[in-house]
Hints:
The protein is α/β, with parallel strands linked by helices. Among the domains are: 134 residues, no CATH class; 155 residues, 3-Layer(aba) Sandwich (Rossmann fold); 87 residues, Winged helix-like DNA-binding domain superfamily/Winged helix DNA-binding domain (Arc Repressor Mutant, subunit A); 156 residues, Ribonuclease Inhibitor (Leucine-rich repeat, LRR (right-handed beta-alpha superhelix)). It is built from 31 helices and 28 strands. The chain has an 18-stranded mixed β-sheet, covered by helices on one side. A five-stranded parallel β-sheet has the order 2-3-4-1-5, with helices on both faces. A three-stranded antiparallel β-sheet has the order 6-8-7. Helix 27 links the parallel strand 11 and strand 12. Helix 18 packs parallel to helix 20. The C terminus is likely disordered.
Amino acid sequence: MAEAVVSIVLEGLSKLIIQELKSLGGVGDKVESAQTQLQFMQGYLKDADSRQGESEVIRIWVANIRDAAYDLDDAIETFVLKVASKRNASLLKRFAYICVEGVYLYKIGSEIKKITTKISEFRSSLPGDLRESGGDKSFQRQQERRIAYPHIIEPHVVGLARGIEELARLLIKKEGPRVISIWGMGGLGKTTLAKQVYRHGDIKRHFDCFAWVCISQQCQAREVLEEILTKLISPTKDQREEIAKLKIDQIAERLWITQRERKCLVVLDDIWTRDAWRSLEAGFPMTEETESRILLTTRNKEVASNADKNGFPFEPQLLNDDESWELFEKRAMFGTEDTNHKIYEQKKELGTKMLQHCKGLPLAITVLAGLLARKDTVDEWDTVHTNVDAYIRRGADFGLDYKGEGYEGVSWLLELSYDNLPYSLKLCFLYLAHFPEDYEIPVSTLTKLWMAEGFISSASAKEMEDVSYMCLSELVGRCMVQVGKHGSSKKIKTCHLHDLMRDLCMLKAKEGNFLHIINYSVASETKETPNGRVRRLAIYLDQTVEAYCPRRDERDGHVRSLLYFIPGNYLLLMDSSKVLLRSLFKNFTLLRVLKFEGMHGPEWKLPHEIGNLVHLRFLSVKDTNFRAVPSSIANLVCLQTLDLRFRYLGIEIPNGNVFSKMEKLRHIYLPINQSAREKRLLFATEAVNLHTVVNIYIQALSDLDDFVKLTNLRKLGVITFDGGKKKEKGTNIIFKHLHSLSVDSRFKDLAIPWNIVLSCPNIYKLRLSGHITELPEDLLCLTNLTKLTLTIFGNLKDDHIKVLEKLPSLRMLFASTGNFPAPLVCSKGGFPLLEFLSLSYLNELKEWKVEKGAMPSLCRLLITDCLSLEAVPDGLQHITTLKELTIKSMPSEFCSRLRGEDFYKIQHVQSVIITKNSFQLKG
Length: 923
């Protein structure tokens, strides 16, 4: 992690503000000298990071380098803070003024010189084994631990039968895929599955020759190709000597010819990157007709998907509860040996509880079972149960050092995925440790936090938001992060960590002093003290504490990131809230990230001292009940994300140009603010990267003239309060780049201003709330629209439903509150791509008809609080794609019909859930 820290600090030194600092007398040379020393250190840090567990000397050395990099970062940002506190003139003019005074320059120069000397001394004290080995010994040991021998078959295989047969069938199929890729997270059983397929009877009879090779993280292409060729042709001693003299292109050609002439099966076990595959690809006849096949295993989805465009990627699934128990019982072998039924039941109860910590990961189950197989008594099992997570990670008894087959823990294998990450992705991964266990992490928030922390480089021609999302996709593709939900555009909406991957994340974050968690829901964790200075704090509150503000001591003075996580009904008292906020804004002036969401209680004001946090990149006070925003918020000129979506509807914004100095602003979420709607909010004309503006009040389309030049604007949410009464100027505003639009006219039951909607031809997400009595035919020009949300105040006529049916790309439709026509008719061929439909609070909806052939792609249907609806439509029986039906808060008569006379309409649906009547069917 030290490598990542140093890299981020070095990147920060190249920013504009630091370039200006370099130009000041004497300081520039000192900054460049510090940069040079850190750059020298980078050459050793990658290897040193992965070897901290081997030597206390290495661990201390790495920690010292990391802290020195942080010291340099702190010194420069503190200097900039002092300059920024005198913002009567521009920043560069203030630099000139301070240069005359000389005080700050002298102090910053001395501080940087001291840090540079310290780094130079650390370089001189480089541990000897690092200086000599260059990582070769560590890599060799890692390789030895990872070798999988194809002749050694697991005696207990569970949950793989379907995969074994399917893959064996595809491999011997005459026109089957050339390459089959087994991919998934470490410990999922990829190699175990490949072994079973490799030794399958049909496979042995079909192929003429076989080769199994284990690929390393540092793939040596020539050695791998030579090994494959040797195993396929079984050369004599003379032939081996001849092959050893060949160049890589000659070996690749011989291997290529061999696979053309014979039916060969080559298994490439544990291949990590596309580059590794590309370096080997020349040895395989990928474009020729041949019956030879390749079976590879990988943790990287990109490798699996791109090894062959016509290939077959296969992802084994985590084991379910029954499969987990079956594997556990077979490996622990206590069932056949325990004749005492009472002891068996006690062990089974403990084993079932411990299996919950494995979350279906075969390796974790195997490690746990292997440990318990050596323990005879219930007391010994209970000892493991007390600290089961640590036992699974280590795979050994505390105080002992088992290194045998089956006794190593899960952590070392998962660590390989972490060690293989580039430095920027390591930081992105470690940041996930902020979030509580089982927390569904919103991707939109996560990527903004990464940007605020400086993890996402802005040097790329791509948008930072796109790069940030690509980083998440890369972590998902490497099987380190799991997908929660997808959005309407199929992008990842939420994500989470497998419990064992989260354990690794927490462990690495703690080792690198990346983060400290103060957890009031677990009493023991609140007593832990961080090792060294804290850069990031995550605070988990519960009802037992009024509020928590970190202490102002030497460690907390370096805090850059502060994230609060609270229960849903958390209540702050007036006195504690005032103390908390004053302390935050006074003592934590170097904060870059402040997530202070969901705090509510007495009505309060966002304190004036918020303006002290001039380094803030991310500020969210969403779902608090602040009543006013102070004018000092204008000082936060570094802000990228600002979320002011308060609970209270009468928020005061001080003046129209309060955001006009925020040139770095990318995402702003304003409060729904009726009291300030007459003020025209001005944004910095230089804020060309503004992506998101939500809850801005307008009277007419012409009020959005200033936004046209913001070509990066992707999401816009407007609230209309005039209903089109303001005389519209002639305007041809077109928002070509907008992806998401929300128009809210509900406060005065106003008609939707359709000219605004139709000025955004390329949107894929649209939310309309207001007086809707018609849907114009022109909506059909929104050919990319995939998600539509209608909150209707009015009576929508049947004719206009036909417009919705014809939207060519619509996949998700939410309709609520208003009066749909009775009957509601979905015509044959209507809604061709609709996958999800939600109908809620449509009080006048009595009858709904679905013609045969309507909604042919519907997968999920939700009906809630449509109190007049008498029955589900008969046409549901023809929608074979429907997998999930959820009914909430519907009349008992409706639910009774569904269980009885109407059951034939939904009997093909895999999951039917009716919450109010506690009736549930699952297919």
